[in-house]
Amino acid sequence: MTKQEKNDVIEVLKGKFSQYNNFYVTNTESLTVAQVTKLRSHCFDKQVEMKVAKNTLIKKALESLNTEKYAGVFDSLHNVTALLFSENPKEPALILSGFRKESKGEKPELKAAFINGDVFVGDNQLKALTQIKTKNELIGEVIGLLQSPIQRVLGALQNKDAGKAIEATAAVVADATPAAENGATPEAEAPTA
User: Fold this and answer.
1) What pLDDT is attached to residue 175?
2) Could you give the CA distance from residue 95 to residue 42 in angstroms, rounded to a whole number?
3) In 3-state terms, the chain is what percent helix, strand and coil (to 5)?
């Protein structure tokens, strides 16, 4: 790889790191070509970008952006590295865990994940990352919590109105019932001339 090609790769990686707030660093060392192709397909289906690059180029790209921000990721840059970029912080974790179940293996291994400024290091973090709530899920929960008291008030008002209607109907039925019990049938009066 020439120096110009390396610089091009670094620029592409810098663009990806700038574009996405979430990325996963994985070890795909023991996967076959067919398995890597299948993993790429899963990523493509879920709108997750997968890039494979040399660790030194990844480190240079991260250092050129912000050394302090990405410092926690540097220790995980060893062996074969594949990067998974996504807008959704949860999706790459779901892809990795689903791929493992499907292939009945422990690869690809999660080395680190950078989620909105937080670094999660180690494969033991994968389960926790699959349970992260996305921004839209959190917004939905907050809206649900805000709507709950309003719905209770509306429900109570509707029940109150329904209760009044039932009482009015019961009163009309109660008034008509004694006349029917006495055997009296209301007769229409003849018009007088």
Assistant:
1) 66
2) 7
3) 60, 15, 25
Give the number of residues written for the chain.
193
- DSSP 8-state class, residue 66: H
For the chain, give every domain's residue range.
Answer: 3-132, 133-178
In Å, how far are 108, 136, 163 from 150, measured between CA atoms?
A: 47, 21, 20
DSSP H or E segment with residue 124: none
The fold adopted by the segment(s) 3-132 is Alpha-Beta Plaits (3.30.70)
* More confident position, 126 or 178: 126
For residues 27 and 107, the answer to whether their CB atoms sit within 8 Å is yes
Choice among 28-37, 96-105, 177-186 with the minimum mean pLDDT? 177-186
